[in-house]
Amino acid sequence: MTVEKGSMPNDKNAECTGDVMNSSASKTTMDLADKYLFPTYKRSHLVLVRGEGCRVWDEDGKQYLDFVGGIAVCALGHSSPVVSRALEDQSRRLVHVSNLFYTKPQVELAQLLVGNSFADRVFFCNSGAEANEAAIKLARRYSREKYGPGRHTIISMKGSFHGRTMATLSATGQAKIQTGYDPLLEGFKFVPFNDLSGLEEAVDDSVCAVMLEPIQGEGGVVCPQPDYLQGVKELCQEKGLLLIFDEVQTGMGRTGKLFAHEHYGITPHIMSLAKALGNGLPIGAMLSVEELSSAFGPGSHATTFGGTPLVTAVAKAVLTSLLNDGWLAHCRSMGEYFRSELENLKAKHPVIKEIRGLGLMVGVELEQPGAPIVEACLERGFLINCAQDKVLRFVPPLIVSKEEIDALIHVLDEELK
Ligand SMILES: *Cc1c(COP(=O)(O)O)cnc(C)c1O
């Protein structure tokens, strides 16, 4: 179908003045979204206009306690002064110049990430998918340089989620994410999470890396069994494979340590970060050990926007606050409290099958679909989320208080009856 420029209907021209809300005052934001945006999202029926701490407000002034946190993004909460200050300062100084030049905030953030992790090198990008894309490219290129062609397969996990670009959806072990996009990128193999012997059997001469989330997020908050990640690391060492941790969701303090793998006493060769790294500004990062750095020489990988002074200045302020203001300890204690309160609910409500999680990454698996509970919570002023149909997922700002958790528990108690 072709549309000629001159054939635009008059009402369409009228709406293209940029002042959309005024030119169609009778239309609500939701109607306009339905008309103009690709229908890629099944959104909750509310238009959010403001946020502060763990609370957000809709167009009608109704207040909600936010246990979604922008999907594990707004770790320091909404309208965090830490973010506002860094954003304002840096926006007056320098927003973007491209990676053709050195900029201070980017280097300072890299130094801070390296100083607080296993890693030696950082590549900045704009999202979780891009961070994983970089991880996949680095693993392939390093392995090719070291072993020659043919060693390119990456083993990832069933139920995993690594993003929506062609490479990262090809690495994602969920059919619903891949449907309709064939042919997928070659060179991915899937094994069940928490199955060490399944992983061992899948390793052949074509495999260069194992890629996994320390705790599966979109997969429904699935935790590793004791010693599983250690077993994966040992297998990687034995077979000369790279270990890639996708900490896009679990990283940046979500589980009560800066990175989830710290709980398990092991380190990967490569790690991807995004979500909470910029507290809502788009930034991703791919980190690795020194040995891999030469595989990403000049011209091997790049991005226009990745690591701009603006987003890295904000991320540096966010990371500094996470490390220095006690939020990791707060996250651990609030997470423990939240999960113990949920265990109390489980004892009362047989509809709860299992409580899972670590820190403030919490999943409640139900015996039935979670959507009606999500809807009921929304009505009562609580934003929660559902993963994999039956798992209520809670990833609130890490600054959430005991009183805010109590308020949610009270509502869940009534709605799960
Ligand atoms: C959200 C997520 C991604 C994708 O991040 P985007 O920023 O949406 O591209 C990748 N991996 C994990 C584990 C995630 O939770």
Listing every helix as H and every strand as E from the N terminus to the C terminus, the arrangement reads: HHHEEEHHHEHEHHEHEHEEEHHEEHEEEH
Number of alpha- plus pi-helical segments: 15
CATH class of the largest domain: Alpha Beta
Q: Give the DSSP E fraction (strand runs of 2 or more residues).
A: 15-25%
* Assigned CATH superfamily of the largest domain: Type I PLP-dependent aspartate aminotransferase-like (Major domain)
The set of bound ligands, ions and cofactors reads: pyridoxal-5'-phosphate
Could you tell me how far the N terminus lies from the C terminus, measured between alpha carbons in angstroms? 53 Å
Helix content: 25-40%
Regions with little confidence, pLDDT below 50 for 5+ residues: 20-25
Strand pairing plus helix content: what structural class? alpha/beta
Oligomer: single chain
Main beta sheet: strand number and arrangement?
7 strands, mixed
Instruction: Using the CA coordinates, give the radius of gyration.
Output: 22 Å
Indicate the CATH topology of the largest domain: Aspartate Aminotransferase, domain 2
What is the count of distinct domains?
A: 2
Q: Look at the structure and give the mean pLDDT.
A: 95
The CATH architecture of the largest domain is 3-Layer(aba) Sandwich
Q: Using DSSP, what is the number of strands?
A: 15
Shape: globular
Adjacency order of strands in the biggest sheet: 4-10-9-8-7-5-6
